[in-house]
Structure formats: C-alpha cells, structure tokens
Specification:
Helices cover 32% and strands 21% of the residues. It is α/β, with parallel strands linked by helices. The strands form three sheets. The protein has a ten-stranded mixed sheet, with helices on both faces. Strands 2-3-7 form a three-stranded mixed sheet, covered by helices on one side.
C-alpha cells in the first residue's frame, strides 16, 4: 500500500461531549473518571440512560435559527466555529470558497420526522400542522449544510453516512479532499443527535443491546463482565485539517499529522461484527502509515459495551498483536460518554490527542471485573498510565452493516 500523497495535519479542534464542551475540559474529565451519562424520560420508551451535551447554541446562533434548524445542526455549528477559532483562521470572501465541510453522521432526519408525526397526532393527523421547515431539516446533508449557512462557507459540504464509523470516515474524506486539491481547509469529523429519537432506543432494546443501570454513570461499561449494552449519546467533534505546507505558511499550531487510514466492509451481517475484517482494516491502515503494528503506541478501541462487539474487536486485536509483550496500550472512551454514534470516532480521537504531549493514557471506565474473553495485554483500566513515548495512535471505529474504519495519526515531526 502506498503512503499518503500529501502531509495532512490537524490544526483545530472543536467539540462538545456529554462530559465537556472543549478539548481541555473533555481531557480533564477523561483523566479524572468523570462520566457524562445521566437519565431521562423518553417519549414511548420511559426511563433511559443517556449522554446529553450542555453547550450553549446561542453562542453562534440566534434564537430563530435554532428554532428553525436541527439539534445536529446546532452541534455542528458549535463544533465548526470552535474548530476554526482554535485553528486561528479568519474566513473572508477570498477563502470561504476553498473551505469544505464534511460531517460524519449515523443517520439524520429521524428526530425531525418523529417530532412532526407526534405533533400532528395532537391534531388528529391534520398535515396542515406539519412544519414547512421539515424538508431542509431532514435532508441527509443538513448538519454540514447548516454550518455553511451559519459561517457563509461557499465550498463543498456533505454528510458522510457511515453508521458508527462515520466520525473517522468524515476525517478521512476531508483528508482525501485536501489531497485531491478540492479544498484548502477541511472542517471534518462527526456529529450525532441520536438521543432525541425514540426509535434508536426502541430498536436497541428489541435487540437486547440497550444498557441500563440505576446509577447512570455506571451504565456504559465496555469490557466489564456485567456490561449489558449501549448507552446512546449525542455529541460532536469537528477538526480543521490542512495540507502541511499551508499550515506552515500561516504559522499554525499543529496537533498531529494523519499518517494513514483504511475503510472496508465485513459483507457478513447487518449487525454482528466480524473480527477478521476488522483486523484486515487495521493492518491496511497501519501499512499505509509506513509502520508496523508494533510501532503503534496507543489504540483507542471502538468497544461499545455489547457482549459480541467487545469480544470480536478483542479477537481482531489479538490476531494483529500476536506478541503480547509488544502490544500497544489499549483504551476506550465510551464508559465516560456512552456511544455518540456518528460522532464517536471523532470524539474518541480527540480525547487521546493530548497523549502526544503529556504521555498519559486515560483508562477505560467502569471495568470492575474484566470479561475473560476481552483479556488483552496493556488494556488500560482503573487508573491512567504513563507511557515512555506516544508517537502513533490508532483509532478504531466500526458500524452497522459491517462498516469498518481505522485512522492512524502521529506526533507531528517537522
């Protein structure tokens, strides 16, 4: 496999998660065991454990635009503005056409459609009460499109539908557009408003995959023997990506460099994962980075808290790392924030970005008794771990219909 044709770097980060509204706060809470999971009453479903964000959308939107737009749009607008500000980029008439917005999503439109159907049910299903905002609210490109309207960006925008691999895939697509020369700045990552649809809760419950715990902070527990499913969460993380030469020209701070990636498909089952294809995806991403698996220092696992999913990913990693003493550190972020669906991969990458500087690996949360079938050397849980070096991080992100993605980033070396 060939290495990337251009050096693509991360120069800005904007995020909101159930336990933090910027990278500093998010990282602090990951290192200090602070969960963002709570409980709410959901229409038709009842009491559920859920991860909700508490950012203020009015920072970047007026009340009218918030009312006429979508929750996913507000999350995207917040993250995109924060990322551009963090990158120190001033958008103007000559640059806006060279900026692209690429937001990974699990799905979009369900929240808006469910709300409209419920609304007209209060009026004997009279469609005269159906909102004329419904179409622009529910089209698949809405979250990215709302960003362009808010920020007057005239370059390309789209949403990358890749199930729960979408956060990684949004970043990958943004990097590809930069390498193709289609844009000079890519605002890329993933967003999710999933907790605001009852359908996703009902579906996971019918599959026996919806987590619940009386103490919501203990509900999301990947790798734990008593895990009982997924905690559905919202959130977003969008990055500013640039070609290295452009970032250098303007003297930008650089968080990290994209070293390699891979996306593939299981072609196996709509829901059940396949370890062999996940391992294949991992190996190809590593190969494209020009390194060996043993040069990876940290792997952020996708593990969601389902019995089969956690085990299959562990099997995949074991098949790659056959020499236990050389296994990289492995951690997981969903114990803190739940499963942020389309935002998961992008948020989880952000949580590990500071490791390049502080050499600290945040632990998995809520692993009280490790499932023997999830045993793997260097799985970090209970306490943060100090590393001698962290030069390469692998970010695993997998989704329904066998959608696999692996993103490799490296410490920036001029």
């Amino acid at each position: 496999m060939s290495k990337l044709r251009e050096r693509i770097v991360i120069t800005g980060v904007g995020l909101t998660a159930p336990n933090g509204n910027n990278l500093e706060e998010f990282r602090h809470n990951l290192l200090n065991g602070v969960s963002g999971i709570t409980t709410m009453e959901h229409r038709y479903i009842g009491k559920v454990n859920v991860g909700l964000c508490n950012f203020d959308p009015k920072i970047y939107q007026n009340r009218r635009d918030i009312r006429n737009g979508t929750r996913a749009g507000s999350i995207s607008i917040y993250c995109a503005n924060e990322a551009i500000k963090d990158a120190g980029i001033e958008l103007n008439d000559s640059t806006r056409s060279r900026v692209g917005v690429f937001a990974g999503t699990t799905e979009h439109g369900n929240v808006e459609t469910e709300n409209e159907v419920f609304n007209i049910s209060q009026f004997d299903y009279d469609v005269a009460y159906w909102s004329h905002h419904h179409n622009p609210r529910s089209v698949a490109n809405n979250p990215a499109g709302e960003v362009t309207l808010n920020m007057n960006i005239t370059g390309p925008h789209l949403c990358v539908g890749a199930a729960c691999a979408a956060g990684n895939c949004g970043i990958i697509y943004g990097a590809q557009q930069l390498m193709l020369g289609e844009v000079d700045v890519a605002i890329a990552g993933g967003v999710s408003e999933s907790p605001h649809t009852f359908g996703i809760f009902a579906s996971f419950r019918s599959q026996g995959a919806l987590a619940y715990h009386e103490d919501p902070t203990k509900a999301s527990r990947p790798y734990d023997l008593k895990r009982n499913g997924i905690v559905i969460s919202e959130g977003g993380c969008l990055y500013v990506l640039e070609r290295l030469e452009d970032a250098r020209r303007r003297g930008a701070k650089i968080y990290a460099e994209i070293a390699g990636y891979c996306m593939n498909s299981d072609a196996f089952d709509t829901v059940l994962p396949l370890a062999a294809r996940q391992a294949e995806c991992f190996r190809i991403g590593i190969d494209r980075s020009g390194i060996t698996p043993y040069e990876v220092d940290l792997v952020n696992s996708h593990a969601t808290g389902t019995v089969a999913g956690d085990i299959q990913e562990t099997i995949a990693l074991r098949s790659v790392y056959t020499s236990g003493d050389k296994t990289p550190f492995i951690n997981n972020t969903k114990g803190y924030i739940g499963h942020a669906m389309g935002a998961a991969g992008a948020l989880e990458l952000a949580g590990n970005l500071p490791s390049f500087n502080d050499l600290t690996v945040h632990p998995c949360l809520n692993v009280d008794e490790l499932d023997p079938e999830c045993q793997i050397p260097n799985l970090v849980y209970r306490e943060p771990v100090k590393a001698d070096k962290i030069d390469f991080i692998a970010n695993n992100s997998f989704g329904m219909l066998g959608n696999n993605s692996v993103l490799i980033i490296k410490r920036f070396d001029p």
